[in-house]
């Protein structure tokens, strides 16, 4: 996967003379040391991360962790004190004022927590605003605004004023305005935090729906770990200006790496986070001819197994004794067609009832090919692991 945005050793010191603070941090001193000695606030302390193209990359942390400072450094609303910010290989920190304005107009869009709509302009004029700054012709920008409002389901509200819309609808206008510019990077800074819980959930679903269609590269800032898990392709967790843990949602919950990160994971609904792939047992081919393949969890073919066709799609299942019969070269019995298969991406909350039927449960990839076997005890163990689980330290 191509890395769209790469941040290398980024620092932000809120001072006109950041050099002494940078020297202290690079010598191993912490944020508190700098504040005590120099009275300078450290916003970012040696942050490095990579955002893949097409990802929803979550920056998560408590208040004061540096997550919003990071967002503002990326488009240089805050000027970084040191480090590099590479957008498709181009260092944004090295740009002059003219080039930076072009980046803000064309390549990076932001959606803020408090909507930031122009109250005296109609919805469609708000959506057009960034295009107007680009000096796009009026007819062209109106067409583009209408297209984007249709995408977010607000066509009927195009000529209403912002105060006539609900909070969720106003946030969708803010999202439409950002999407209208067709920017390379969309930064969403606590974009749903001000919304009521029900509207917030609707907006999260709306973003996931849009992402399936538009495949944008999104940097999403949040203090809510459940939101990070629901939306994120990858998550970076910040504390004291550092990135303290980075990885996929499932990997972070399985291995927090510290007590700080583990505190976020204790209340996670693992049944809705983990998928079938995360607990399946890989299968090995035991026997094959021109038309059929036998697959089992054991390379020796011990225990029950699956009979596949030449395309590796399941025809049925065999008991352990029937597998032994086939392994020994005797005729393969007619497979039992009472089996279940689930996709590798299916969440365990949906998988669990399949495992309770008593028949083997296969796991298939996006092409319908068998890639694994589910065991009910493994599914229950993964769902049941929680706050009492040991914290693994990286």
Automatic annotation (TrEMBL):
**Main subcellular location:** membrane
UniProt keywords (A-Z) are: ATP-binding, Cell inner membrane, Cell membrane, Membrane, Nucleotide-binding, Transport
* MF GO annotations: ATP binding
Record's catalysed reaction(s)? a quaternary ammonium(out) + ATP + H2O = a quaternary ammonium(in) + ADP + phosphate + H(+)
User: Where can this protein be found?
Assistant: Cell inner membrane
User: Known EC number(s)?
Assistant: 7.6.2.9
- Pfam families reported for this sequence: ABC_tran
Residues forming the ABC transporter domain are 29-265
Gene3D superfamilies per UniProt = P-loop containing nucleotide triphosphate hydrolases
Q: Which domain of life is it from?
A: Bacteria
**InterPro entries from the entry?**
AAA+_ATPase, ABC_osmolyte_uptake_ATP-bind, ABC_transporter-like_ATP-bd, ABC_transporter-like_CS, CBS_dom_sf, Gly-betaine_transp_ATP-bd, P-loop_NTPase
Q: Which PROSITE patterns match?
A: ABC_TRANSPORTER_1, ABC_TRANSPORTER_2
Record membrane topology: Peripheral membrane protein
Segments traversing the membrane: none
Task: Note whether Transcription regulation occurs among the keywords.
Answer: no
Q: Which SMART domains does this chain map to?
A: AAA
Q: How does it assemble?
A: The complex is probably composed of two ATP-binding proteins, two transmembrane proteins and a solute-binding protein.
UniProt record similarity statement: Belongs to the ABC transporter superfamily.
Specify the protein name: Quaternary amine transport ATP-binding protein
What organism is listed for this UniProt entry?
Paraburkholderia youngii
């Amino acid at each position: 996967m191509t890395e769209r945005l790469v941040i290398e050793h980024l620092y932000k010191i809120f001072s006109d003379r950041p050099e002494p603070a940078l020297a202290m941090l690079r010598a191993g001193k912490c944020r508190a040391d700098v504040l005590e000695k120099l009275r300078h606030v450290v916003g970012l302390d040696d942050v490095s991360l990579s955002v893949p193209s097409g990802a929803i990359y979550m920056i998560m942390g408590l208040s004061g962790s540096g997550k919003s400072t990071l967002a503002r450094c990326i488009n240089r609303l805050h000027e970084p004190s040191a480090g590099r910010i590479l957008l498709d290989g181009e260092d944004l920190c090295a740009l002059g004022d003219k080039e930076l304005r072009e980046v803000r107009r064309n390549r990076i869009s932001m959606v803020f927590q408090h909507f930031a709509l122009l109250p005296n302009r109609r919805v469609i004029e708000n959506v057009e605003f960034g295009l107007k700054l680009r000096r796009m012709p009026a007819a062209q920008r109106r067409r583009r605004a209408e297209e984007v409002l249709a995408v977010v389901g607000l066509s009927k509200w195009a000529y209403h004023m912002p105060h006539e819309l609900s909070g969720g609808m106003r946030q969708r206008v803010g999202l439409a305005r950002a999407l209208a510019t067709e920017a390379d990077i969309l930064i969403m800074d606590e974009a749903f935090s001000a919304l009521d819980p029900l509207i917030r959930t609707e907006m999260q679903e709306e973003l996931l729906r849009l992402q399936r269609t538009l495949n944008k590269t999104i940097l999403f800032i949040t203090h809510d770990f459940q939101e990070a898990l629901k939306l994120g392709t990858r998550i970076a967790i910040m504390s004291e200006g550092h990135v303290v843990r980075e990885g996929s949602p499932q990997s972070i919950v399985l291995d927090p790496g510290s007590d700080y990160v583990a505190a976020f994971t204790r209340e996670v609904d693992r049944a809705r986070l983990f998928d079938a792939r995360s607990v399946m047992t890989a299968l090995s081919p035991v026997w094959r001819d021109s038309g059929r393949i036998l697959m089992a969890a054991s390379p020796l073919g011990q225990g029950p197994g699956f009979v596949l066709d030449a395309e590796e799609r399941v025809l049925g299942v065999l008991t352990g004794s029937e597998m032994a019969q086939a392994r020994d070269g005797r005729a393969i019995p007619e497979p039992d067609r009472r089996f279940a298969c689930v996709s590798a991406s299916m969440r365990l909350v949906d998988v669990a009832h399949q495992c309770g039927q008593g028949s083997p449960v296969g796991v298939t990839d996006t092409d319908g090919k068998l890639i694994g076997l589910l065991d009910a005890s493994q599914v229950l163990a993964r769902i049941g692991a929680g706050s009492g689980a040991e914290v693994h330290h990286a």
